[in-house]
Amino acid sequence: MKYYLIAGEPSGDLHGANLIEGLRKADPEARFRFWGGDKMAAAAGSECLAKHYRETSFFGIVQVLGNLRTIRRQMRACRADVEAFAPDALILVDYPGFNMKMARWAKERGIRTLYYIAPKVWAWREWRVKAIRKYVDRLYVVFPFECDYFPQHGIEPVFEGNPLVDAIERRRPTLPAPDAFRRAHGLDERPVVALLAGSRRGEIRDNLPLMARLAERFPDRQFVVAGVPWLEKSLYEECLAGSNLRYVCNETYETLAAAEAAVVTSGTATLETALLGVPEVVVYRTLRFQVWLRPYVLNVRWVSLVNLNLGRESVAEIIQSDLSVDRAERALRAILTGGADRARMLADFDELRAVIGGPGASERFARRMVGELRATK
Fold first, then answer.
1. How far apart are CA 51 and CA 74, in angstroms?
2. What is the number of other CB atoms lying within 10 angstroms of the CB of residue 292?
3. pTM for the model
């Protein structure tokens, strides 16, 4: 069968690549075309890549409004490419701003549409639930609590675990020992604290200066910023000027594997950190009015995927508009070696791994997709 996948950011590229490999196993005759990135190209072949996510990623209202013409042009190009490929299924990977529009278009043309990694409608923009129900033929979710949420809105989702576990378990055997990581990056013997400041320019600018101030209060630790390769090093250097923080690029899992603890912005990184067994504090700086509006615009009590999946506050969430580090300092001290919350948090992470499910999710999802598509042919 023929599969057209659309992923618009790095995490979607990762999960899309793992799904492609699963689809190949479930359907040896599978043919692919996609919007995605390097990982999907490595899994399916670079000739199958129609558009790289670097050209299509626009985040935040300012970027979106400033690039409306480009987005509309890309949407038209994507639709034309899907029609030319004539897939048996259109598989939408997260990226809801673009993909929900594609779902409606595909439904109107009778193209079977599968949504892999559901939009986070349980957190905000709940009105999208109606569109999912109307335009998506099958919804595949990656968090257990979504199995309770979506049926309340007339949608029966498929849950086979979380593909992030696959990505982590693939990397785990290759991760260096802490001493080897220190030697590779010229670090001394002090314990390492990993800093994951986000994956977008605005997040780096908002959160990294706060993390640098926090690090000043822990001279007995060395803080290492895990940079992402799609953002230029100069952005980090601008935020780290005058600090003693170290910077490494494209080594997030390696940094976490060497770390005693981590300070993480909200997002997928909170779950990755927990699944790697690293105690963490979630710190996110945003505008004052957004902090004030949070209870009115968010439908959930917590922002970290750790707390959402456990259904309780396991990791501290410090969402603020200023640069106060007092709360962050207390929370971090509590999870360092000998800290009051460290053992409890590590036990929580063991529970989280059981809740999320074991490796093999990508292949299980792929088998379900192929089986259901064949059943409808």
1. 9
2. 10
3. 0.86
